[in-house]
Specification:
This is S-formylglutathione hydrolase FrmB. It holds the Pfam family Esterase. Keywords: Hydrolase. The chain has 267 residues and is of the alpha/beta class. It has one domain: 3-Layer(aba) Sandwich (Rossmann fold), CATH 3.40.50. The protein is built from 7 helices and 9 strands. Strands 1-2-3-5-4-6-7-8-9 form a 9-stranded mixed beta sheet, sandwiched between helices. α2 packs across α7 and α4 packs parallel to α5.
C-alpha cells in the first residue's frame, strides 16, 4: 500500500507519551486527525487498541473527556499488557459519519480500516504489520466497532462496544440529520451488525458489549443481544447502572482493556 501523506507531532512539544497525526485520506478526499497514546513505547509488534468516538466528538474526546489514558496507566500498574491506544476522528462529516461508506463516494469505513492502520504503522515504531489490533467505541463509535469488527474479522482480535448505537435508526436520539444522508454505497445490509456477524460467523473474533440501564439506547442494545442470540452468534452482553455519559464510559473502558488483555495473553 502506498505511503500516506501526513503530518506528525514533535515529541518535544507534545504531551508525554502522546502523538498527534493528521492524515490525508484518498478514501474520503479529506484530512483527518488521530490521537495516539503510548506512542513512544519501545517494543516489537505491540498490540493496538482502536477507540472510536461518538456523535459530535472527535479524535481528542477519549483522552480529554474520557480520561482513557489515565485508566490505562492505572491498569498498567496492576499488570495490564502494553498497548498502543489509537483514537481517530470519525471523518468530521455531518454530525457523525457512523464510520460508513456513504453514497457520495466518501468511505469512512476504509478510512478506519485502511488509512488509520497504515498511519499508525508509519509513525509508531512499536507497531508493525504483525501487531494485533483490537477495536472498541462508545455510542456511534460502539456501532462502528461492532460493525467493522464483524465486517473485517481478520483485522481485529477482539471487539467491544459501550452504549452502542445498534442501527442507523438509533441516530435519531442524537441528531436531526436525515438518515438518507447515511445511505450506503451498496444496500441496507451494509449497515447491519447482525448481517456481518452471520456472514462471518466462522471467523468472528471474541465480542462483548455493555449498556447502562438508564441509557436511551438500552432497549436497542437488549434487542441486538436478542437478535445475536437468535442467530447463534457467540458474544457477551453486560447491563450496568448508568446513562449515556462520560462517567459511564470512563468507568467501563477498563473492562474492555482487560478483555483485550486476556485475548492478547492467549494469542
Amino acid at each position: 500500500m502506498t505511503a500516506l501523506r501526513l503530518e506528525v507531532s514533535n515529541p518535544e512539544f507534545t504531551p508525554k507519551d502522546t502523538q498527534f497525526v493528521t492524515v490525508y485520506s484518498s478514501n474520503t478526499g479529506r484530512r483527518h486527525d488521530i490521537s495516539i497514546y503510548n506512542a513512544h513505547l519501545i517494543a516489537e509488534n505491540a498490540p493496538v487498541v482502536l477507540l472510536l468516538h461518538g456523535v459530535y466528538g472527535n479524535h481528542w474526546v477519549w483522552m480529554n473527556l474520557g480520561g482513557v489514558h489515565t485508566v490505562y496507566d492505572q491498569l498498567k500498574q496492576q499488570g495490564l499488557s502494553d498497548f498502543v491506544l489509537v483514537m481517530p476522528s470519525d471523518g468530521g462529516v455531518l454530525e457523525g459519519s457512523a464510520y460508513l461508506p456513504l453514497s457520495n463516494g466518501e468511505d469512512y469505513d476504509r478510512w478506519i480500516v485502511e488509512d488509520v492502520r497504515l498511519a499508525v504503522e508509519q509513525t509508531v515504531s512499536a507497531v508493525s504489520k504483525e501487531s494485533n489490533w483490537y477495536i472498541t467505541g462508545l455510542s456511534m463509535g460502539g456501532y462502528g466497532a461492532l460493525r467493522l469488527g464483524a465486517k473485517y474479522p481478520s483485522l481485529f482480535k477482539g471487539i467491544s462496544g459501550h452504549s452502542s448505537v445498534t442501527c442507523l435508526e438509533d441516530l435519531k436520539f442524537f441528531t436531526e440529520v436525515s438518515l438518507h444522508q447515511y445511505q450506503e454505497k451498496n444496500d441496507e445490509l451494509e449497515s447491519n451488525i447482525v448481517y456481518w456477524c452471520k456472514k462471518h460467523v466462522a471467523e468472528l473474533t471474541p465480542m462483548r458489549f455493555d449498556c447502562g440501564q438508564h441509557d436511551e439506547l438500552f432497549e436497542s442494545n437488549n434487542l441486538l443481544a436478542k437478535r445475536l442470540t437468535q442467530a447463534n452468534i457467540t458474544f457477551s452482553y453486560e447491563k450496568h447502572y448508568g446513562g449515556h455519559e462520560w462517567a459511564y464510559w470512563h468507568k467501563h473502558i477498563a473492562t474492555t482493556l482487560q478483555f483485550f488483555d486476556q485475548i492478547q495473553r492467549q494469542s
